[in-house]
Structures are given as structure tokens and as C-alpha cells.
């Protein structure tokens, strides 16, 4: 084997790779925010008295969880233009990530909500709180505390899933690395470096989530 390692193209392309990391972070954060909104809204509809709303949420969750993310992002990017809806790669990636993450977030958050004793909900209603206030003030925070590890793990997975957005040329780390590799043909060096970058991104996100948990979800010790 006469292959000689040459990281020169990687070093030359380092500014572009760092910008790609920033693009990955932005896609992940925007996708997470959208997923949280969909997750909380979906839980509220899933447990509502409106049967059509419940069935709609169930159908949404089953459809998204049982189809590949690549197919979902292709559908939004290539199929929706047939209806007159055209989106650039980055908004398409954010919407696809939000929808995909939201479907999983619905089930995770719903599991946390169901873990709250009904007595607490009944006590809130007895105090004169509306159902929306009971959900926001009594149910939501304890539920988020209970499901926080599962939810953050799902969001780290969502961050790694941003790499699939390179299939529609969204600006993120994998798409940048593909361009560098196609120009230099140094596949091992490029993708080894990208692997390290993704590991660092995941580690940083886990540290950020841990700090957030310690700040907002720690039980009082006294």
C-alpha cells in the first residue's frame, strides 16, 4: 500500500470547514426549536377532546417515524415545488429537521406528561386554573425534567442528522467536506477530519445540555 497521508487540502479548507460547522449548528438549533414547538403543540392536540385532532397527530407521528429522513427532505425540496411551494436548501433542511424531530418529541414529551400524577392536575383545576395554565405551570416543567435526558439525546441525534441535508446542497459540514474531497480526492483525510468535528460538536452539545439541566432542572436540595 503506497497511499501517503496528505492533510494539506484539509488545512487549506479549514476556514470553510469551520463555517460548515457553524452551518451545522444553526441548522441543528433551528430544527430543535421547531421540533420543540411541534412536540409541545402535538402533545396538547394528542390529548385534546377533539377526536380528529388526536387522529391527525397519531397519523403524523406514525408517518414521520416510519419513513426515512432522506425521503422526507427530498419530498419537501423536490415534490412541494409541484404545488407552487419552492424553498431554498437551508429553509428546507430546517423544516425537515423540525418535522422529523417534532414527531419523536411528541412521543417523548407525551410520556413525560403521562408520568405526572393526575392528582396534581386535579389540584390545579381545583385552584381555579385553566387547563392551559395547568399544562404550563404544573405539568410541563416536571415533565420536561423527567424526559430531559431522552429529549437531549434525540436532539444530539438530530444534530448528526443534519449531514443528510447535504443531499440537497444545504450549507453544512458534510456538504463542505464533499466539495473539498471532490477537488482534492483526499477522501480519508477529509472524512477523518469531519468525523472528529462531528464528535466535538456532539460533545459540546452534550456539555451545553448538561449545564442547562443543572441550571433549570435541578431539584432543590433543601
TrEMBL record:
Kindly list the residue ranges recorded as spanning the membrane: 17-43, 55-80, 92-113, 146-170, 190-212
Q: Which GO terms describe its cellular component?
A: ATP-binding cassette (ABC) transporter complex
Location of this chain's protein in the cell = Cell inner membrane; Cell membrane
A molecular function GO annotation: transmembrane transporter activity
Q: How does it sit in the membrane?
A: Multi-pass membrane protein
- Boundaries of each ABC transmembrane type-1 domain copy? 21-209
Which NCBIfam families does the protein's record reference?
Answer: HEQRo_perm_3TM (TIGR01726)
Subunit details: The complex is composed of two ATP-binding proteins (GltL), two transmembrane proteins (GltJ and GltK) and a solute-binding protein (GltI).
The UniProt entry's sequence similarity note says: Belongs to the binding-protein-dependent transport system permease family. HisMQ subfamily.
- Write the protein's name: Glutamate/aspartate import permease protein GltK
Q: What is the source species?
A: Rhizobium ruizarguesonis
Amino acid at each position: 500500500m503506497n497511499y501517503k497521508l496528505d492533510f494539506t487540502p484539509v488545512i487549506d479548507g479549514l476556514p470553510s470547514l469551520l463555517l460548515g460547522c457553524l452551518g451545522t449548528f444553526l441548522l441543528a438549533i433551528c430544527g430543535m426549536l421547531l421540533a420543540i414547538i411541534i412536540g409541545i403543540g402535538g402533545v396538547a392536540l394528542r390529548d385534546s377532546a377533539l377526536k380528529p385532532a388526536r387522529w391527525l397527530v397519531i397519523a403524523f407521528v406514525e408517518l414521520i417515524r416510519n419513513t426515512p429522513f432522506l425521503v422526507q427532505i427530498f419530498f419537501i425540496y423536490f415534490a412541494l415545488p409541484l404545488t407552487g411551494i419552492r424553498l431554498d436548501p437551508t429553509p428546507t433542511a430546517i423544516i425537515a429537521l423540525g418535522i422529523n424531530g417534532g414527531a419523536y418529541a411528541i412521543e417523548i414529551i407525551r410520556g413525560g406528561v403521562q408520568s405526572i400524577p393526575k392528582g396534581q392536575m386535579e389540584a390545579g383545576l381545583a385552584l381555579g386554573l385553566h387547563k392551559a395554565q395547568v399544562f404550563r405551570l404544573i405539568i410541563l416543567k416536571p415533565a420536561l425534567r423527567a424526559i430531559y435526558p431522552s429529549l437531549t439525546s434525540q436532539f444530539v441525534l438530530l444534530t448528526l442528522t443534519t449531514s443528510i441535508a447535504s443531499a440537497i446542497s444545504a450549507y453544512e459540514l458534510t456538504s463542505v467536506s464533499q466539495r473539498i474531497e471532490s477537488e482534492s480526492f483526499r477522501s480519508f483525510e477529509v472524512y477523518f477530519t469531519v468525523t472528529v468535528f462531528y464528535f466535538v460538536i456532539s460533545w459540546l452539545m452534550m456539555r451545553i445540555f448538561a449545564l442547562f439541566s443543572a441550571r433549570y432542572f435541578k431539584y432543590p436540595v433543601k
